[in-house]
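Form 12-C: Joint structure prediction
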Amino acid sequence: MTRGNDEPGAGVATRRPLVPSRPRYGETVIRGLLFSCAALSVVITAGIVLSMIGPTISFLGQVPIGEFLTGTTWAPSFATPSFGVLPIVVGTGIILVVSLTVAVPVGLLSAIYLSEYASPRVRRVIKPALEVLEGIPTVAIGLFAFWFLHPLIKNLFPFLGDWRSPFSVGVAGVAVGLLIVPLVASVADDAMKAVPRSLREGAYALGSGKLAVSLRVVFPAAISGIVASIVLAGSRAVGETMVVLIAAGAGNPRLSFDLTEGVQTMTAYIAGRATGDIPVGTLAYDTLFAVGTLLFTATLILNTIAIRFVRRFRELYD
Amino acid sequence: MPPTHTPRRVRPATDVARSATLAALTAGTRRGRATSTAFLGVMLVGLSFALVGLLALIVFMFAEGGGRLSLTLLTEGPSTINPGGAGYRPAILGTLWVISGVIMLIVPLGVGSAIYLERYARKDRWWNRLIELNIQNLAGVPSIVFGILGLAFVARGPLGLGFVAIAGSITVAMLVLPTVILAAREALKAVPPSISDGAIALGATQWQTTRRQVLPIALPGILTGVILAVARAIGEAAPLLLVGAVNFITFDPSFTSRYTTLPVLIYNYSTRPQDEFRVLAAAGVIIMLVLVLAMNSVAVWLRNHFETKYREH
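Section 2 - Result
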């Protein structure tokens, strides 16, 4: 393309510089708008941190941090309140352990099957089914656990405890496990799918069978992604609210390891306590945020670990 | 630095060698074959655990609440005196209001963020890396924490909207926003670079390229992500407990009125001791499952349809 004022036939090709012919302010505005959309997520995180810091500091001004973190009696709304957070932390811990005990073997076996054994046709059916399970509202899973799993597990394992309460932390843990199976399966499946074909083919060429290739080549090669899937699922289990609220009950926070008893978790405390109209600035309101801070910190640590493992895995194979 | 990477590369290779040796020793033997079959069995048992759980949930809810399904379930309001004639009308309307607010917020914000990160952001700038890391982290924050944020900043505090439906919309939108961004980014990433390179080479600006070439191709993928996020938003109850959805509402809610939503009212009914409420709650779960499963199916169909069409080229 030549312009009228260019000298034709000058011998040397005139080269237009690679800059826009006119300034495009619209492009800059659009870029700015898109950037502010993306930056909003940082504002949300800042909002979370800011909303928690004030009430948490105010809480720690009234309750010593040592008493909060190591106390073994959680009775914040009693006439003589006690703010030892350990019972509800232990409650969350039991949910975490039970749910991972269920979800890790089930999820990883499913992932190995989907990634290494299933035909594309089987995959096309099972993958969406797992996604559907992931999309089931947690209220539905909680009620399923409370009404169906509780009597079932009670009859199958009567020796676990005395099963006096309609609530059971063990049953809630199993239900949360069911909830996080798709997460473990899909992240681990993606990780194993990402392992280069050459590793599999090398092993087959040397005479390995399918089992050896799956368990001794692909599984170890994808281990970072697999660890990430477990940590992510753990983080999800720690933060799960409705299932725990319904199936483990929100009352009576006791420091107990009995799987057949109801227990209060950090999330269930927040959800159960905040449903009323709590006045701002009271100790009850601050307690809510102090527990929230603890929960947020715990999941933040788990997520950071998971992201690091995923990144290490990507560096290796992408 | 290559030296630090070498040991990691070596490990899979040694695994290959080790497995091959083991295979040479055990393959073909009866024991080797038995182990393989046993493992296949164990895998199928593991897989069926999840699928049977899903199936049992659906069957159980239909068995429990199926008899209660009728139009009055949708058209009648809640009642504590007459659970036999009560329904979910205000909760369904409340869910519609909350969700329409969520859609209006997450579509522009989520797609805008994804376009910025995929098409504009330079990866070597620290603020862009901060945004990326932040979104990944935000995707893993428990839903109840967003409820706390909604309580402190949206229902009260700076925004001070009160315990109304729009406060619920904002709270849930913040919760599902990272999912939408991540899904939209994947969809944008899947567009072949040759298409945008071609447009840029012909002199189109970045926005023209994105708007007219990249976005139309990525649209089905983005839509899939939005539908899945909305399906998740419909079933979300925990954060809404903190921003006012627990009210026992008997009137038709709107954006700026007090409200309740379907999963919250189901939870509310289920905590009552009478058997009629249990049946009512199960029937509510069926409504919610039908809604969520329908949306999931649409999303899966959209993705499969689009993927096969796209590969033909």
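Section 3 - Comments
Confidence is low (pLDDT under 50) at residues 1-6 of chain B. The radius of gyration of chain B is 25 Å.
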